């Protein structure tokens, strides 16, 4: 039985024979030429379909193992990281860049967080999201680090998760600027890196030590 190939950023599919690759497209924002390139590669190598993933990447589904290297070469795009204990791709909405409801620039902050953390190795995986308004289209409340824009600045939330043990994130600071968010997330990531060697989501750690202790450890506050 074949398996996922981490070094090629290729994930085995349900049929046990074909693979999916997903070139990095931060925020799902791409130009027409990039979309055409992805479509051309999918067509050239007989992919079964294309699918936008929850990490806002366009996945090319159903490639043969022998075509993976050539497909990546033709794409000429960054693969990012698909498996393992890393910071995953930052999910963010259009914010004030495109959306009429946007109250903060989620694209600017999301891109900065993506460039700063994506692929950083940690004791366990970490997910981040930025929403430009309280509609929360990027689902920050179920991310380890979630940021929600309001008319009065950003709200910072921590400890969210979906999956078998869902947990809503705790609000730890309000009315923050982009610079204050970046500084706070730096401290959260460093805390997470240094908290033992156990494979735990951030929310589990917060439940163990208590929210107030966590806020004290990372220097968070509510304005």
Key features of this structure:
223 residues, alpha+beta, Alpha-Beta Plaits, Sulfite Reductase Hemoprotein, domain 1, 5-stranded mixed sheet, 7 helices, 31% helix, globular, 4 iron, 4 sulfur cluster binding, metal ion binding
Gist?
Residues 84-219 form the Nitrite/sulphite reductase 4Fe-4S domain. This protein is 31% helix and 18% strand. It has seven helices and nine strands, in the order ββαββαβααββββααα.
What's the shape?
A: globular
Question: Would you list the SSEs in sequence order as H and E?
Answer: EEHEEHEHHEEEEHHH
* SS summary, helix count: 7
Low-confidence stretches: none
CATH top level assignment of the largest domain: Alpha Beta
Let me know the largest β-sheet.
5 strands, mixed
- Rounded Rg: 18 Å
Strand content: 15-25%
| Number of spatially distinct domains | 2
Mean pLDDT reading: 93
CATH topology of the largest domain: Sulfite Reductase Hemoprotein, domain 1
Q: What CATH architecture of the largest domain do you see? A: 2-Layer Sandwich
CATH homologous superfamily caption of the largest domain: Sulfite Reductase Hemoprotein, domain 1
Structural class computed from helices and strand pairing: alpha+beta
- How many strand elements? 9
Straight-line distance between termini: 55 Å
Helicity, as a percent range: 25-40%
In which order are the strands of the major sheet placed? 5-6-7-8-9
């Amino acid at each position: 039985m074949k398996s996922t190939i981490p070094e090629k950023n290729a994930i085995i599919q349900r049929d046990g024979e074909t693979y999916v690759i997903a070139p990095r497209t931060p925020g799902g924002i791409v130009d027409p030429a990039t979309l055409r390139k992805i479509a051309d590669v999918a067509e050239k190598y007989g992919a079964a379909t294309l699918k936008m993933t929850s990490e806002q990447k366009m996945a090319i589904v159903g490639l043969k193992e022998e075509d993976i290297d050539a497909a990546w070469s033709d794409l000429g795009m960054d693969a990012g990281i698909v498996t393992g204990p890393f910071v995953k791709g930052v999910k963010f909405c259009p914010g004030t860049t495109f959306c009429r409801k946007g109250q903060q620039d989620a694209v600017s902050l999301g891109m900065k967080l993506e460039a700063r953390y994506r692929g950083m190795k940690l004791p366990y995986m970490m997910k981040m999201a930025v929403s430009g308004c309280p509609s929360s289209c990027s689902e920050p409340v179920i991310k380890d680090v979630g940021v929600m824009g309001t008319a009065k600045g950003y709200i910072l939330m921590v400890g969210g998760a979906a999956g078998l043990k869902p947990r809503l994130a705790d609000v730890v600071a309000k009315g923050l600027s982009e610079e204050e968010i970046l500084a706070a997330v730096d401290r959260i990531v460093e805390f997470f890196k240094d908290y033992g060697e156990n494979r735990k989501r951030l929310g589990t750690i917060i439940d163990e030590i208590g929210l107030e202790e966590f806020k004290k450890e990372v220097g968070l506050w509510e304005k």
